[in-house]
Design brief:
Number of domains of chain A: 1
Strand content of chain A: 25-35%
Keywords (chains A, B): Hydrolase, Protease, Proteasome
Order of helices and strands of chain A: EEEEEEHHEEEEHHEEH
Largest sheet of chain A: 5 strands, antiparallel
GO molecular function (chains A, B): peptidase activity
Oligomer: homodimer
InterPro entries (chains A, B): Ntn_hydrolases_N, Proteasome_sua/b, UCP009120_prtse
Largest interface: A-B, 48 and 48 residues
Organism (chains A, B): Qipengyuania xiapuensis
Protein name (chains A, B): Proteasome-type protease
Number of strands of chain A: 12
Radius of gyration of chain A: 20 Å
Structural class of chain A: alpha+beta
Low-confidence stretches of chain A: none
Distance between the termini of chain A: 45 Å
Shape of chain A: globular
């Protein structure tokens, strides 16, 4: 499995991904799932991937190649006039790779080889944008109503984001929120694993801001992980107590 | 979907289930998923069901019939000498109903009609016990290491139980913990819905203790639901803050 989150705040974008891939619980590996292309001062584009690793690696490799031969391509990431076109490009590429593999495997391939991708970034003169791209190649964009996207093992870490999110929060608090969300997920699902990749894209900087790899030894993540249990218990005890007598029916 | 939790505390058992069944999001209904049989002073047995509704209703109906004709049955719930035998009975019954339906539908039936059941209770002279019964008819028992079982949509509500559980907590706090877990699940998955059924089985009472149906108008559940958001935010802000400068790499 995988867990990646992209979150849109007023001050920019906060992105985090795990690095575990598995084929059964007895075959796990570490693979980076976050990839960035940038032209400092002009644009920064980051994608995070979940799903079939052969598919997502093929998507990334082909995106890389296109960035290296811009003169031969009209649709290279680094030349796309908008983030919308970047998401379209990623979607078409992924849909093509998935359907090629499925066709080659006939009935056996149906529903396999799929993947999902979060596309985030900002291009000079435009707003920061955040998309979720489906295996079919279509995509949706984050809005004020749904300001974050998760892919992979999304459930364990979702309640705290729903409750903790505030579009006005600082980028640092955004990082803290995702650390807690990842901690809850790591505690519940072995197929999501450390290290984590973190990237912060501050609005109107057009370059990768803070980047960090969170390992087992990371003191901040350790502090979050150990103090969140106590903080949750305190939160729990701060709630009104239940009483049997008054409520018997 | 469904969400049911059975939790074992030193002071007894706390059980909670939702009542939503759905066949697509455009076809939802309310069905009770918690069923109790008791002989006050001798035993109390409660089961909670998840999965195919036709299967679980058949299991419950057949268990009901067996309780009504004890003289013709050696294996009636109300005569079983141990909770282990109750779980065995429930498992065999469910496995039989599922495999009958699957056989009748051939290849189309494979993997369908399945269900899971939580069996909880206490019989005079023995400890309170809690089992999770699988569609195959086998089952596992809760222990000190894994003192609670969830069936249905288990993921959203799991992190708070993992962090909040304490075997020494009062039965009232157990109820509060499950209220929070259900609130997180209800907020995230439409296929889990109010009203909720709550039952508390205090140790060595051998009867249904506190029972309650939690509706939309329930003031306690409303208070938990609205104050948990604030409590979580406070917990979040009590954690150490993240700082970019020191951690840049």
């Amino acid at each position: 499995m995988t867990y990646c989150v992209g979150m849109k705040l007023d001050k920019g974008l906060v992105l985090m991904s795990d690095t575990r891939t598995n084929s059964g619980v007895d075959n796990i590996s570490v693979f980076r799932k976050m990839f960035t292309w940038q032209v400092p001062g002009d644009r920064i584009i980051t994608v995070m991937t979940a799903g079939n690793l052969a598919t997502t690696q093929a998507v990334i490799s082909q995106l890389e190649e296109r960035t290296k031969e811009p003169e031969n391509r009209d649709n290279a990431l680094l030349k796309s006039p908008t983030m919308f076109q970047v998401a379209t490009e990623v979607g078409n590429l992924m849909r093509g790779i998935i359907s090629e593999r499925q066709d080659a495997n006939g009935a056996k391939g149906r529903g396999r080889f799929t993947a999902s991708i979060i596309v985030a970034g900002q291009i000079q003169g435009m707003e920061p944008r955040l998309f979720m791209v489906y295996p079919e190649g279509n995509f949706i964009e984050a809005s004020l109503d749904t300001p974050f996207f998760q892919i992979g093992e999304t459930k364990y870490g979702r309640p705290i984001i729903i409750r903790g999110y505030d579009r006005h929060m600082s980028l640092e608090d955004g990082v803290k929120l995702l650390m807690v969300s990842f901690d809850s997920t790591l505690k519940a699902n072995l197929s999501v694993g450390l290290p984590l990749d973190l990237q912060v894209i501050a609005r109107d900087t057009f370059e990768a801001g803070h980047q960090h790899r969170v390992t087992h030894e990371d003191p901040y993540f350790q502090a979050i992980s150990s103090s969140w249990g106590d903080a949750l218990k305190n939160a729990f005890h701060s709630l009104p107590d239940y009483a049997f007598l008054k409520r018997e029916d």
